[in-house]
Each structure stands twice: as structure tokens, then as C-alpha cells.
Amino acid sequence: MATVDRNTRFCCDSSFLHRRNIMSFKSFFMFMLLLFTIDRCLSEDDHEMEEFLKREYSLSKPYQGVGSSGSSHWELMGDAMVTTDYIRLTPDMQSRQGAVWSRIPCNLKDWEMQVHFKIHGQGKKNLNGDGLAIWFTKERMQKGPVFGNMDNFTGLGVFVDTYPNEEKYIEAQKKRYTPRTQRIFPFVLAMVGNGSISYDHERDGRPTELGGCNAMVRNLKHDSFLFIRYIRRRLTVMIDIDGQHEWRDCLDIPGVRLPQGYYFGATAVTGDLSDNHDIISLKLYQLTVIRSRKEEEEEEEEEITIPSVDNLDLLRSGQNEEGMSGIAIFFTVLFSLLGCIFLVVIGLVVFSHWNENRRKRFY
């Protein structure tokens, strides 16, 4: 009898061990499947992307590729000057403008530009200006009013605007800022031009901007960075200005269509107010993205020749909606209440006449 019990216990133990092994195998299989799924998701989010530094489109110390010779990759313009530590687009002096432009057109489909810059000067808050811009445009080496570049440009401009011109515009229109519309300067914004869109200097580019964010970049003791990525017709701008080596989102716009073969550049301008605008480095990375055959065929069929942004009117209408002031809200509520009271009174009068006529029919 004891032998039977021992055999029974052995069979039960063996069956239990077998089931436990099966459960362990299933758990291990599910764990590996989960890891594989997460890895696939991360790969899809990153578009299985690799990046490569393109030195011919980049600018960094000791700036050997900058000059007026035909063999140089970058060319200076205006008041810009080269030092051992930076390229100063403008000094902290009035009415100056300078630029540095790439000589080689960029034919990359997907790219990422990392800008290391510094803006500093003697002027106190709102007594400095005007800012700098990073460009990817069809035109190059053209002086003008848009941060030292031409107006009605063709391509992309990302602006670091340090002076609030719109305050004067608002005062002239006898309007007031609302918490929804007021901005804190310096302010980073992006704009896509097709050759016929003008930058509204008085309103700090608000009517034509794609989006933006405030960025307190003046007179910082640590480095300032601007990140511009263009991938799969999506424009992303981020900033790193807190000295924490962390990118902060500024704008992310899908449906941005930029042709290839444009030029990179950086410009700056001063007016009655001034600042030192320094470019320390411009590093361009080629992004290698794996596309499906369908995506490649669609992109080949739709050749981009003019810069544009999908649903631009809808985007701007959402951004340019101005909130009502406190007085406007007060009168809106007041007239709404008066209108309701008026309708109630009219209703009571009509009901009273109807009820009186109804009683008369019974006599």
C-alpha cells in the first residue's frame, strides 16, 4: 500500500513538474514576444532611422571651410566675421546685419540641423534686438528686412525673435493683449514661404507663422541649442536652453513640403537696438529612413517644386483666434442676459393674451 502511495505521489509530482515547465515555457515565450513587439514599436516610431553627419553642410570650429574662395563651403556676408570660437553675425552695435550661407545646395530628403548659438549684449530687457534666423531657402546671399534676409523668400525660416514689435502695433490699434495672445520674448517661430508671402515685421510674423514657443536665450552662461528636423514631410523644432542637455518641444507640424536643392544659412540684424548674435556651430545630419515601396512610389509621383504646408489656413485660424478681453466678455454676458429677459417678457405677454382670449370663448 505504501508502494502504491509512493508511485502515486511520484506520478503527481512528475505531472506537476511537467505542467510547471510548460507554464514556465509559456511565460518565457510571452515575455520574448512582448520584447519583440516593443522593439518593433520603437523601430516604427523612430522610422528605423540612422543619422550621419554631413560635413559639407556643417559649420564648426576651427571654421576652415568659411571664406570667399571658390573652394570654401560657406560664405560670409555683411558685417559677419569669423573668430576662433564663433562666427559673429552682428556685433552689439546699431544698424548691422550679417550672414553666413552654404555654397552647396542640399539634396537630402530627410535631415536634421542642430544649431549651437549665443545671443548676448549690454541691453536690458526689451532694450535689445532684433534676433537671428536659420534658413533653408532657394535664394542665398540676399540682404533684406527679415532678420537680415530678403522678404518673400522661398523655403523655410526659423526665427529667434528677441524684440516684441507687436506691442507697438497693439498700442497703435488701441487694443490690449489678452493672456491668450500675449507672448514672452525672446520667441522662436517658423515660417514657410513660397516666394509671394511677406513676413509681417510689425506683428512679429504672427499672421504667417506655423507655431512657436518662448525661449529665454539672452545672456545665458550655458550653451543654447536649436534643433530643426525635417522627416517624412514633418517639421519639428525643439530647443535646449536650460543647461540640462534636454530638448524641449517648440513646434511639430505635419504636411510640410520642402523641395530639395535649397541652401542653408544663418542671418541676424540689429536696428535701433542691438545684440551680439553668434553662431558657434551648424551641424547637419542626414537621416536614413526605411520607407515602404508604396511610400517611395507616392513620393516619386508627387514631385515638390514649391514649398507649402497642408491645411495651412486651418492651422493659422486655430492659432490666430484672439480671446476676448474682460470688458468684451462682460458686455457679451450682459446683452445675453438682457436678450433672455426680453424674450421671457414677450413670451409672458403673448401667453397672457392667448389665455385671455381662451377664457372669452367659454362665456
TrEMBL record:
Annotated keywords: Disulfide bond, Glycoprotein, Golgi apparatus, Lectin, Membrane, Metal-binding, Signal, Transmembrane, Transmembrane helix
Superkingdom of the source species: Eukaryota
Entry's localization field: Endomembrane system; Golgi apparatus membrane
Biological processes annotated in GO: endoplasmic reticulum to Golgi vesicle-mediated transport
Transmembrane segments: 327-351
One GO cellular component term: endoplasmic reticulum membrane
The L-type lectin-like domain, residue ranges: 51-287
Mode of membrane association: Single-pass type I membrane protein; Single-pass membrane protein
Signal peptide (residue range): 1-43
Matching InterPro entries: ConA-like_dom_sf, Intracellular_Lectin-GPT, Lectin_leg
Pfam families (UniProt xref): Lectin_leg-like
Gene Ontology MF: a single term: metal ion binding
Name listed for the protein in its UniProt record: L-type lectin-like domain-containing protein
Taxonomic path: Eukaryota, Metazoa, Chordata, Craniata, Vertebrata
